[in-house]
Amino acid sequence: MKLLVSPSSIEEAKFCLDADIIDVKRPAEGSLGANFPWVIREIKKLAGNKPVSAAIGDYGPTPGNAALAAYGAACAGADFVKIGLMFNDKTAAHEVIESVVRAVKEPFPEKTVVIAAYSDYVRLGSIAPHIMSPIAAKCGADFAMIDTGAKDGKSTFEFMNKEALKAFTEQNRSLGLGTALAGSLKFEDIPVLKEINPEIIGVRGMVCGGDRTTMVKAELVTKAIQMVR
Ligand SMILES: O=C[C@H](O)COP(=O)(O)O
Description:
Oligomer: single chain
Strand content: 15-25%
Structural class: alpha/beta
Distance between the termini: 8 Å
Radius of gyration: 16 Å
Number of strands: 8
Order of helices and strands: EHEHEHEHEHHEHEHEHH
Largest sheet: 8 strands, parallel, barrel
Bound molecules: glyceraldehyde-3-phosphate
């Protein structure tokens, strides 16, 4: 299980360099809010050989917008390009995912595409993660992810229990997809996450000390790395 940490700035990224994946986002613009290309570029320089991920946003059914943002993130240096689907329509999901995969993989076949659905999909009215995964696999994406869409402090575990997260992870494995799990995860969730055994867990609030709108703290990144390994 790898640890992905989401800094929101170059300054914060300096505290995240020992994580397995450095995930650039802009929390002020949503759960998977996109940061600026120059921030992705600088963090990629700082990260050296470490993979850099970039969130491109929480999207409606707008494949053109999503594809162009995905291409932009890949051109700026992101190794992983991550999009959230904030709508509930299977045909549109297929169109958005297919467009994002093509936008990234045509020019950069080695890059990784991550498709996120939200654990709180019922309250958001968005696509369920287990419905999204087979579509992501069919379109050639690499990872299916779960995050919380409304960042109000409620954790993914408040919407999906261990069994549901395990079933999601196993479904993805059988589809040839990796799994990333996130959503206000806490240090005390790490042992059960190890049992669920996704390829990646993603955190921000945990390493900010509980409030994801504050700064990432170097000592909490170290603590998370030690607990995950
Ligand atoms: O990709 C993971 C997210 O940044 C998780 O953020 P969070 O732990 O604050 O919910």
